[in-house]
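RETRY 2/3 - previous attempt timed out on the joint model. Re-submitting the same 983-residue input unchanged.
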Amino acid sequence: MLNASLKQLSAQLAQKKISSVELTTECLDRIKRLNPEYNAFITVNEEMSLAQAQAADAMIASGQSGPLTGIPVAQKDIFCAKGWLTTCGSKMLSNFVSPYDAGVIERFNAAGAVNIGKTNMDEFAMGSSNETSYFGFVRNPWDINAVPGGSSGGAACAVAARLAPAATGTDTGGSIRQPAALCGISGIKPTYGLVSRYGMIAFASSLDQGGPMAKSAEDLAMLLNVMVGFDVRDSTSLQRDVEDYAGELQKPLHGLRIGLPKEYFAAGMSSEVELAVTNALEEFRKLGAQTIEVSLPNVPLSIPVYYVLAPAEASSNLSRFDGVRYGHRAESYTDLADMYRKSRAQGFGAEVKRRILIGTYVLSHGYYDAYYIKAQKLRRLIAQDFADAYQQCDVIMGPTTPTVAFNLGEKSGDPIQMYLSDIYTSAANLTGMPAMSIPVGFGEKKRPIGLHLIGNYFREAQLLNIAHQYQQVTDWHVQSPV
Amino acid sequence: MCNRQSEFVCYRETQFIAGNQIMQWEIVIGLEVHAQLSTRSKIFSGASTAYGAPPNTQACVIDLALPGVLPVLNKGAVERAIRFGLSVGAAINSPSIFARKNYFYPDLPKGYQISQYELPVVQGGTIQIQTESGEKIIRLTRAHLEEDAGKSLHEDFHGMSGIDLNRAGTPLLEIVSEPDIRSSAEAVAYAKTLHTLVRWIGICDGNMQEGSFRCDANVSVRPKGTEKLGTRCEIKNLNSFRFLEKAIDFEVGRQVEILEDGGVIRQETRLYDANRDETRTMRTKEDANDYRYFPDPDLLPLEISPAWIEQIGQTLPELPRARQQRYMAEFALSQYDASVLTASRETADFFEATVRHLPGHGKLCANWIMGEISGQLNKDGIEVGSCPIGPDRLATLLARIVDETISGKAAKTIFDSLWKGESGQDVDIIIAEKGLKQITDDGALETLVDQVLAANPQQVADYRGGKEKAFNSLIGQIMKATQGKANPAQVNAMLKRKLEA
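RETRY 2/3 succeeded.
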């Protein structure tokens, strides 16, 4: 049942061939059995999930259901969900039960979806391997010695290991696309502003964007139809006409112009990734698309720009975690400053501290212009590069990551190597453009490889169309490690 | 507020003569005023701003800075900032930018305050104040929107501190002057003018006890005649005009003393202690925070359309200064009277309503409002809006003075009855009941005068012998005989005529 597409599950639920309670129970059983090894979930709450499943069955019985009614969705533990422990992968919030629902959670609840549990993640979404989580690392279901990627590592693992048919993620520099690639699933980061950030614990506000992770582009379209929508509580939320993201899925790709940035096909990419990407591009040509070389001259600066701006915003966003009102507070302290110091020193892990330090530094008096302002200027130049490229092509493609999943522990001692995992993905966050990853093959030890697609603003439907057409003629996305 | 800032600080000239009479010092002051905007909900959340609720009952998830919450700007706060900008002739910036001011304090839930830094919503503008030497213009640097912090309560918690976040997120307009102020008296005049203005245009209730209007003063001194600004000290949280004046006076004295002893002023933030009437170091420049301002990525640049500005401009009332000038021209009032009457919009409106019932007698109306009405209101501790004698009733009373039905003295007696709500507050009934109608009949008065002259031959002789005092004694006798009801002017003239006949 858990190999089925969302469309199939939805039809079976609507036709009452299965109930949401049955589907939910199957997921919970699998989680119970496999999560001790994978560690994809931080919190599972059978009672609450089953209550939602019963409510979904009632919705279906009364004819009030929608496409996602009764479907279990694994929620990244960055989304506040009322009554659920919401930790953001941190000791700091290891005792925080949210009193309110995030905008995204509200939309899933309204659609009748079932929250099947809260997935593991890098602490405060800072990481590319899921190894910075206070709740321990997550294993890659394709190779349990490999990382699943991050920060949405638990989500990617859950979908790949068929613990849940779908999941949510968030993407600040590649946190949906990179783990999707490393775990052989599909994931999309929508245009900044489409998915509400209300109740999504902020890492870097101007870059963070929630999005779905699932087996196929078609599944992603169904999830996006629920996740996207204006939220008055998020000032950066965009007010647009409702769009059907599945609306263009069947469009032929004939005449599609695929831009291949020479900067993405330069040194650094492993040969197995290059081969898989080359093969995928050949498949697109067979589907009637043409490929043209484009240039994004400033894009190689994405990583340094990203590692100024994201920590700058994070250093401020994480100030609220001070032990005063909620979250971790040191047991003993001598005075106020000592309470702050100890609570934060104990509550945050090393990577979070590193980024707070970097961010505090780049915003400091005397350094602000040289780092923060300079990075903002480059951010604009990078966006201009993409605008120029879209004069010549409809979509940009390249590898999602330079290599397949690395081993657990392999890069955790080398932050720079870890940061380079996001070398191809962070530009889409800096520009706010939609981007996705789909599976296009395997490297050594059957570790998956992802193809990266970057679209112009609000062209999610086109990206999903391109990915769906590819998935109609290939079967990477239906392969399962279990 | 803004930290990277010596250009914001504050100056002008009044002279301060140093103790040794050798050096003359010029005082340079700039004020930062925090006016709490009168919106019903907070600047970035829907929680109520009402004062005095039990702790933390008016703090929603946004005010508590729970993980994941986001700010949404209150349009009413922006509207009030624009009203202010228009009323001081400032430019309204579009866009303006919200910035985060980062520092840790338990009553600052997010670990940063959302404020405006590089691009404030209001830029420039001027405030005209009255000084002893006439009118003076104080330039404004800027006015920006920001959120208030909560309160730390250090008593009643047995060695711990309590945090009340009801106030967190209350909208403030921080109004920053140029260093154009040259004395504590000017500082008070400026603060009072601003206080009147913000209430007048309905953006702030001006309640200083509740902290709705708070001043910080940047004070420095320099040798008179020099250009270079002295090192300033900022005195925080002056919540009354009297404290503002006393704190500045103390601070100037302190700085001059240090300089005359050959010392140097240390740039620092100081706190005024009203009990001891002195300022004390709160924090020095060395332990000042680096606030790491940067644009808040949760809020978009604030765009204000010219149409909205125009629409707000159309709802702006006639401003205090314009009214003062009109009162001087229209009612021949002095500058002083005009400024007292325009100290609040309610008082000015009361005056205008009164004079509308009694055209041509502006000065009489002004005198009574500034005298009896204001005195009684103060005594009873009530606002002019709840004055038991309305403008129409006051005008009726004053009309009886004008038409000589009663004397001014009798009018005060009637005023007291009216205030107490006696006799259905009917002026004419009270006049009749108390028999206060003036005697203006020549015949009746002449009989009275003759009687008094006949009964007091000694005083008559004295007066005629050159003792002018005797005249007053005779007048007193006449008034006593009529229980004060004789028309004084008539009696005066008649007595004079008869004595000098």
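Chain A has 15 helices and eleven strands. Closing ticket.
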